């Protein structure tokens, strides 16, 4: 069990939890998404500025456990400057890493693979995908 916990709290997760990227409120953003887990209370706002199909600025605020905060930090960091089509591919890679048991493609970003251990902890999986699912829902509605 200790080995599994060490996998869950990968050094990248600890780093992004302690030093989140783009952690700031941006209330004038063109798009504001809410990511809320009613079971544990994790709650984040994602602030996005999208111009001509590209994320030109992204940030977040809120609170949650180490896994959810780190996952949100990685999401916001990775989508900076990406087209919405590139964001969809990124989301697919992340969900493949966190939700499936299949052998993963070699070219998946190693930062995304840091969250793969969450699938071994059903109670923590929601933490790992919370903000990513909010982004996916936004893109599906768009």
From TrEMBL:
Ranges of residues in domain NIF system FeS cluster assembly NifU N-terminal: 9-127
Task: State one molecular function term (GO).
Answer: iron ion binding
Q: What GO biological process terms does the UniProt entry carry, in alphabetical order? A: iron-sulfur cluster assembly
Q: Which Gene3D superfamilies match?
A: 3.90.1010.10
UniProt-listed CDD domains = IscU_like (cd06664)
Record SUPFAM superfamilies: SufE/NifU
PANTHER family assigned? IRON-SULFUR CLUSTER ASSEMBLY ENZYME NIFU HOMOLOG
Name of the protein this chain belongs to: SUF system FeS assembly protein, NifU family
Give the species.
Haliscomenobacter hydrossis (strain ATCC 27775 / DSM 1100 / LMG 10767 / O)
Q: What is the lineage of its organism?
A: Bacteria, Pseudomonadati, Bacteroidota, Saprospiria, Saprospirales
């Amino acid at each position: 069990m200790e080995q599994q916990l060490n996998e869950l709290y990968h050094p990248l997760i600890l780093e992004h939890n302690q030093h989140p990227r783009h952690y700031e409120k941006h209330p004038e953003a063109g798009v504001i998404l809410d990511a809320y887990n009613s079971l544990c209370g994790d709650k984040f706002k994602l602030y996005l500025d999208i111009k001509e199909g590209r994320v030109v600025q992204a940030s977040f605020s809120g609170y949650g456990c180490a896994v959810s905060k780190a996952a949100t930090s990685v999401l916001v960091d990775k989508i900076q400057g990406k087209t919405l089509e590139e964001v969809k591919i990124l989301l697919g890679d992340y969900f493949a890493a966190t939700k499936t048991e299949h052998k993963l493609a070699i070219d998946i970003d190693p930062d995304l693979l840091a969250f793969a251990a969450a699938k071994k902890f059903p109670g923590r999986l929601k933490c790992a995908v919370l903000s990513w699912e909010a982004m996916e829902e936004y893109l599906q509605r768009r």
